[in-house]
Amino acid sequence: MGFSKDNLKGFVLALLSSGFIGASFIIKKKGLRRAAAASGVRAGYGGYSYLLEPLWWLGFITMIVGEIANFVAYAFAPAVLVTPLGALSIIVSAVLAHFILKERLHRLGVLGCVMCIAGSIIIVIHAPKEHSITSVLEIWSMATQPAFLLYVGSVVVLVFILVFHFAPQCGHTNVLVFTGICSLMGSLTVMSVKALGTALKLTFEGKNQLIYPETWFFMLVVATCVITQMNYLNKALDTFNTAVVSPIYYVMFTTLAIIASVIMFKDWDDQSGGAILSEICGFIVVLCGTILLHSTKEFERSSSFRGGSYMPVSPSLSARLCSGGNGELEKHEEEDGTPSEEICLRRQELY
Amino acid sequence: MGFSKDNLKGFVLALLSSGFIGASFIIKKKGLRRAAAASGVRAGYGGYSYLLEPLWWLGFITMIVGEIANFVAYAFAPAVLVTPLGALSIIVSAVLAHFILKERLHRLGVLGCVMCIAGSIIIVIHAPKEHSITSVLEIWSMATQPAFLLYVGSVVVLVFILVFHFAPQCGHTNVLVFTGICSLMGSLTVMSVKALGTALKLTFEGKNQLIYPETWFFMLVVATCVITQMNYLNKALDTFNTAVVSPIYYVMFTTLAIIASVIMFKDWDDQSGGAILSEICGFIVVLCGTILLHSTKEFERSSSFRGGSYMPVSPSLSARLCSGGNGELEKHEEEDGTPSEEICLRRQELY
Predict the structure, then answer these.
(1) Mutant choice from B281, B287, B292, B295 vs A, greatest count of A C-beta within 10 A
(2) How far apart are CA B156 and CA B153, in angstroms?
(3) Burial class of residue B349 (count of CB atoms within 10 Å of its CB; 0-12, 13-18, 19+)
(4) Which of A118, A272, A291 is opposite residue B284, by nearest beta carbon?
(5) What is the CB neighbour count within 10 angstroms for residue B160?
(6) Confidence band, pLDDT 50/70/90 cuts, at residue A126
(7) Membrane-spanning regions, if any (chains A, B) (predicted)?
(8) Highest mean pLDDT range out of A220-224, B80-84, B313-317?
(9) pLDDT band at A222 (very low <50, low <70, confident <90, very high)
(10) Which residues of B touch A (CB under 8 A)?
(11) Are residues B108 and A292, on separate chains, in Cβ contact within 8 Å?
C-alpha cells in the first residue's frame, strides 16, 4: 500500500509515457491526413509523401519520447504497476481523437475509458513497493532462481512448439498462434528491459554496472526478445485485422508479463491477500475497459503501418496498437464516395 | 479492511438475496410463458392466467425471500457494502436466462457481468466494519446529528420541489424527475430500513427495542418512504421505457444511499484514503458493468408489470428492476409474426 518515492517516479513516468504515446497517434494521423490532402496519395496505397510532413515527424518523435519514458519507468517501479498502465494511452488517444480529430467517441467507449481509469487507480493504490536493488548481480540471482528458470524454460519450449509446429500449420488461420508467440516473448522482453533499465539507472547513479558481463547478457536478451516479438507481431497484424489482434494481444501480453514479474521479483510476497486480490480485480477491470473500447471502435488495417511509419521500439507497444489511432484515416475521407466499410473489407481480402 | 463476523453475515445475506431475487425473475418468467401458452392471452395484454400457474407463485415467493434476506442484511452490514451488491442479482438472472431460458448473453453482456463481480470484490475487500450498536437510541442520536438532519432536510426540500414544481411541468417528458424522486426517497428508505432492521435484530437478541417510541417512529418512516418511492417508481416505469429508467435509477439510488450512509454512520471515518478510493472505484466499476449489461439487452415494457405480478417490497428493488428478467417474454414469442421491436414501439406509444 505504501507508495515509495521510486514507485512514484515510475508511476509518473508511466503516465507521461501513456500521454506521449497516446498523443503521438493523433499528431501522426494529422500529419498523414495533411500529406494525403497535399499529394492525393494515401500511405495505405503506397504513398510516402508523409515523410515530407513535419507534423508526422513530430508525432514520430513524440512516440519515441513516450517509449523512452516507458523504458525508464520499468527501472523505477514494478512491472505489475507499469505494464497495465499502458492501457491509459488508449484513453489519451481516444479523448484527443474526440476533440482534435472530431472522431465521435461512442457512449460505450466513454464507459471503457472510465473503467480503464478506475482499474488503474485500484492497481496503483495496491501496487507492491519496488525492491531496492544495488547491483545487477542481484537481478541476476533473481533471474536464475529455479522458479523463474522454469518459467523461462516453459516459455521457450512453448514458443518453439508454436513457431515450428503450429505456425506453418495453422498460423494463418488461428489468431492465437502468432499472438501467442508475441505475448510469450513479450513477457521475457519486459523482464529483460526491467533488468537492463535498472542496470543503466545504477550506472547513471555512479555505480557502474557495465563491468559485469551480466549487464551485456541482459542487453543481448532484450535485443533477441524485442526482435522476435516485433517479427511475429507484424506477422499477426499482416494476417489478421487489428481489431482482432489488439485485445487478444493486450490480454495475453499483460497477463504473462505480470506472472513473470511476480515469479521473478516476488512482487506479491509481502502483500496481503486483500491487496493482491484488489490488484487482480483492477487488472481485470482495465482489461474489460480495453476490450470495450476496442469493440466500439471500428478498426481496420492501419494505413500508416503499410507506409512504414510504424516502428515498434519497446514492450509497451501493446498500448500503441490498441489505440487504433493510426487506422482510421479512411473513415473521414469518405468523400470519394466509397463507404469506409467497403474499403475495409476490400483491404482485408488483400492479405 | 478487517472483515468482522457481522460484516460476513451481512455479506452472505446480501449474496443470498441477490441469488433469490435474480432467480425469481427466471422462475416467474417461465411461469408467465407457460400460462401464456396454456391460455393464449399474455399478461401484457391483460391476461391473469398466470395466477393459476404454480411456477409463477414459486417465483413470487422466491422474490419475497430475497427481499427479506436483503432487509436482514442491512441489519448486519453497512449500507455501503449491501447496496452495491444488489447489482449481482442482474448477473444471476442474466446467467440463468442464458442457460434456462436460452436467452443468448451478448459478448459485452459477459463483460458487464465480469465487471460487476470484479467491482463487488473490490467493494467487499474495502468495506468498513459495521459499528456495534446496542440500542435504537444510538441510531436515533446518529440520525439527529446536524450533518444528517441537513441531508434529510435537503432531500425533503428537493423532493417537494420535484413533486410540486417539476412533476406537473415536465415529469412526463424528462426521465430525471420521477427517477430523482425515487432515488432521493430511496436513500432515506435504506437508512430507515437499516435503523428498523437493527432495532428488530436487537429485539430478537433479547434487548427489547419496541419499548422506545424511536423504533415506532423508524417504522413510520420506512412505510412513508417505501410508499412514496414505489408510487413514483411505478410512475417512472409507466411513463418511460425500463431500459431508460433502470440504469439511471440504479446509479442515482445507489450513490445517494451511499452518501446518506457515509453521513449518518460515518462509515469512512476510520478508513484510510486508499480504502475509500478503492471503494469508490469498485462502485464505479459496478455501475459501468450495470450500464453495459443494460445497453446490451433490449428492454421493453415489462409484461408482468402490467399484469400486476410486480410488487415491490424493499429498497433493493433497483436490482430487481435492473435485471430486466421480467420484460423479455415477448422476445421469445415472435411466432405470432409481429417483430418484437414493433411491439415495443407500439407499447411505448400507449403511454
Answers:
(1) B281
(2) 5
(3) exposed
(4) A118
(5) 11
(6) confident
(7) 6-27, 55-76, 82-101, 108-128, 148-168, 175-196, 216-233, 240-263, 275-293
(8) A220-224
(9) very high
(10) 1, 107-108, 111, 114-115, 118-119, 121-122, 125-126, 272, 274, 277-278, 281-282, 284-285, 288, 291-292, 295
(11) yes
* Nearest-5° Cα angle at A132, A129 to A134: 165
As given in the structure block, the three cell numbers for residue B275 are 480504502
User: Could you please report the per-residue DSSP string of B235-246?
Assistant: HHHHHS-HHHHH
- Enumerate residues 6+ apart whose C-beta is below 8 A from A42: A32, A36, A303, A329, A330, A333
Grid cell, residue B191, equals 437508512
State the average pLDDT for chain A. 78
For A181, other C-beta atoms within 10 Å of its C-beta total: 26
Cβ partners under 8 Å of residue A264, min gap 6: A142, A143, A145, A148, A151, A191
Q: Using CB atoms, pick whichever of B107, B118, B277 lies closest to residue A281.
A: B118
With a pLDDT cut of 70, the percent of chain A lying above it is 80
Q: What gap in Å lies between CA A87 and CA B53, rounded to an integer?
A: 52
The alpha-helical segments, DSSP class H, found in chain A are: 5-39, 54-76, 79-85, 88-99, 107-126, 136-143, 146-161, 167-170, 175-204, 213-239, 242-265, 273-296, 303-307, 317-323, 340-350
Is there a contact between A263 and A204 (Cβ–Cβ < 8 Å)? Answer: no
| pLDDT score for A13 | 93
Q: What whole-number distance in Å separates Cα of residue A36 and Cα of residue A125?
A: 45
Helix (H) or strand (E) holding B346: helix B340-350
Cα angle vertex B245, ends B239, B246, to 5°? 140
Q: Which residues of B touch A292 (CB under 8 A)?
A: 108, 111, 292
Asked whether A59 and A10 are in contact (CB, 8 A), the reply is: no
CA distance B292 to B250: 13
Which triple of cell numbers denotes residue B7? 460484516
Measured CA to CA, the distance from residue B309 to residue B28 in angstroms comes to 9
Per mean pLDDT, which of A5-19, A247-261, A322-336, B315-329 is the most reliable? A5-19
Nearest to B189 by CA among B224, B234, B163, B235: B224
Average pLDDT over residues B321-331: 36
> Is A250 or A9 the better-scoring residue by pLDDT?
A9
- Secondary structure, 3-state, B208-232: CCCCCHHHHHHHHHHHHHHHHHHHH
Cβ distance of B122 and A122 shorter than 8 Å: yes
Q: Is the Cβ pair B282, A122 closer than 8 Å?
A: yes
- Residue identified by cell 435492473 is B322
* CA B107 – CA B98 distance, rounded (Å): 12
pLDDT per residue as tens digits for the range B55-101? 888 988 998 899 889 888 988 888 888 888 888 887 888 888 888 88
Q: How far apart are CA A96 and CA A347, in angstroms?
A: 27
**Residues B49, B54, B60, B62: what is their CA dihedral angle, to the nearest 10 degrees?**
-160
Angle at A276 between CA A218 and CA A94, to 5 degrees: 75
- Predicted model pTM: 0.72
- Identify the burial level of B54 via C-beta atoms within 10 angstroms of its C-beta, where 0-12 means exposed, 13-18 middle and 19 or more buried: exposed
